[in-house]
Amino acid sequence: MKKLIWIICGLVGFAMLIPIICLCRIYMTCGNLDRNTVIQVLIGSDPITKHSPDGQYYFVTEVWRRKDSKKDAYLCVLLKIFDKSGKLIQEINTHASDVHRWEALWKKNNTILMKSSDIGDYEYEQQKEGVWRKKDITNH
Prior knowledge:
Strand content: 35-45%
Oligomer: single chain
Structural class: alpha+beta
Order of helices and strands: HHEEEEEEEE
Number of domains: 2
C-alpha cells in the first residue's frame, strides 16, 4: 500500500510540473501572459513550406513571435518567397494574425493565395520586375 501511495504521489507531482513548465515556456518566449499569447505559444503554428506548381519557387510561412522593432508584425503570418535554389526573393508581412484561421497556397505559378478569417482573402502576384504585390480579392 505504501508503494502505491508513493507511486500516486510521484504521478501527481509530475502532473503538477507540466503546467509550470508551460508557463515558464510562455514567459521566456513572450514576456507576458495575455490570453492570445498563451494560446499561440502552446498551440502555435509551425513554419509551412509549399512549392509552386512548376517548382520554380517555394514559400515558407512563419509567425513573428519576437517583440522588437517590428511592432506591427507580432503574431502575424510572414510569407517568405524563395527561388528554387533557396535564394530569398521577398519577405512579406501579411498582417494576418496567427490567432485567427488562415491558409496560404499557390493559385498559379506566380500567384499565392492568402486566406485569413481576420483580414480577408488576398493574392500576392509576381510582377514583371520580380516583386510580389498584394491584391485584395475579398469581395470579388
